[in-house]
Amino acid sequence: MSRPTHNPLGMVVAITGGARGIGLATAKAFIAAGAQVAIGDIDAECAADQARVLGARSRVVDVTDTASFVEFLDTFESQLGPVDVLVNNAGIMPLGPLVEEPDEVTRRILSVNLLGVTTGTKLAMARMVPRGTGHIVNVSSAVGRVAVPHAATYSATKFAVVGLTEAVRAELRGTGVHASVILPAIVNTELGSGLRTTRVSAPVEPEDVAAAIIRTVRKPRFETWVPRTNYVGYRVASMLPRFWFEALSRATGSVDILSSADAPARAAYEERARRPIE
Known about the structure:
The protein has one domain: NAD(P)-binding Rossmann-like Domain (Rossmann fold), CATH 3.40.50. Helix content is 48%, strand content 13%. It has 278 residues and is α/β, with parallel strands linked by helices. It has helices at residues 21-32, 44-54, 66-80, 103-131, 152-171, 206-218, 229-238, 242-252, 263-274; strands at residues 12-16, 36-41, 57-60, 85-88, 134-139, 177-184, 223-226.
């Protein structure tokens, strides 16, 4: 049986972390497809600037604060109508060995990347299920399936997002509401600054991820990798014994992809990502 097809034209789409990177590219892609877009971001000024350029709506949202998330969704639903698609995109990736990671940074990563996605998913379910329609798209990462050193907490949150989405997908079966997870590789954004390529993985553009999200909304599916070839590599590698899997990771340089990051090139991003929410 073929999957149903949905046209983004006229949809109301809310995107967290929408002022930069993947979120901004996704906002542009949905607008180009005829959707009405609401950009939410902790950086209210940047979100407002981008919304003015795009002809979208914007509002500050702290995804770690349930009241802020509720207000974000309530505001746009009062202006545009029920949210058809929620893209839980907001996330941060401070790098470094886990033993050296300050406790406040660990809590911030968990709060933004996991609590924020969980909160958004719950709020969207509560709104969409009674209507019998809607789509929740959670942005994870390739390291949500294959972990690498120097991003242990980040990877833990992204593994959790995959598990959360898989469980929610089962809970939503038969309701008319869809749940999907997106797993990008290294993306050419500020979050991915200073990361080097490997023999098997080159950076993708945020527009590539946005296009994958649009495809997933048009024709719902659980899991989408960007690029698609990474899924094939993951499936093949996952069938290997652990010893050979780890040897292959070392041989291709994949295991060092985050631990060898260019610190000066990431300095501005790291400072912003580690900054406490005021």
